[in-house]
Amino acid sequence: MTAETRELADVLADLVLNLVVSAELADEDEIHPDTAVRLLEGTVAELQGLGASDRLWLHEHVAAAAREERHPDRRRVLLWLAGELLGDRG
Predict the structure, then answer these.
(1) Residue from 57, 62, 56, 90 nearest 75 by CA
(2) 18-73 residue pLDDT tens
(3) Residue 18 and residue 78: Cα distance in Å, rounded?
(4) How far is CA 75 from CA 8, 53, 71, in A?
């Protein structure tokens, strides 16, 4: 992966992480719960459809973000997403 491609991948991954965390933690007055569920399910399904090496790369990116995250609720969501990327449902 070139440096430019890596930078783009990092930015896009961070955008997805922020989207997932925001949708999961949003209050009902910020986003309708049904909309949040559809957004999360659709996003996670697309990510789970990535090839194994891409899922592993994204898992490592998410896990690193979780390690750096200070807010417990955001960290919880990031750890959940990391598990989903590896197929860890428990």
Answers:
(1) 62
(2) 999 999 999 999 999 999 999 999 999 999 999 999 999 999 999 999 999 999 99
(3) 9
(4) 23, 23, 6
C-alpha dihedral sign at 53, 50, 14, 2: positive
Q: What is the DSSP string of the chain?
A: --HHHHHHHHHHHHHHHHHHHHHHH--TTTS-HHHHHHHHHHHHHHHHTS-HHHHHHHHHHHHHHHHH--SHHHHHHHHHHHHHHTT---
Token pair for 4: 């430019």
The CB density around residue 84, as the number of other CB atoms within 10 Å, is 20
